[in-house]
Amino acid sequence: MEPLAGAGGAGCAAAGSGDDYRDAPHCVRQMLSLSRAVGEASDDAYEAVPSCLWDYGQLRFDLSARRVARAGRDIPVTAREFAILLHLAWAGGRPVAKTSLYRAIFGLGFVPETNALAVHIYRLRRKLDHGFAVPLLRTVEGRGYALIPEG
Hints:
- By secondary structure, this protein is of the alpha+beta class.
- It has helices spanning 26-36, 43-47, 79-90, 98-106, 116-129, and strands at residues 4-6, 52-56, 59-62, 67-70, 73-75, 137-140, 144-147.
- Helix 1 packs across helix 3 and helix 3 (79-90) crosses helix 5 (116-129).
């Protein structure tokens, strides 16, 4: 993972060596926590997060503004799409199971008989990969979805 940079370096530190959620810098831990309740979180809750930028390959996450850019181009995403991307990025390119995403993003411990996640992934692919030769968001058959840091 790439280092984090905040406004004037405040509020963010370099990513820990471990993959554990507890090793994440404070602003990323706070965003992951907030993204678990993304359907219920207000914009005020996100504004409480200190200014924090996280570079993940070609992607740059602005955690306080809930924005993402690829290669300098802003990509408009919904709060739920942002939460999905954040969880996939935190996995560091490894596949994330659908059940994990449903638990983290929708608060469900099972995969419901709905295509809600597939619809979000479809929309994210269109937004994230449009105009780029190499897609970053991939389906790993039988394992889930992965966000590849370098295209």
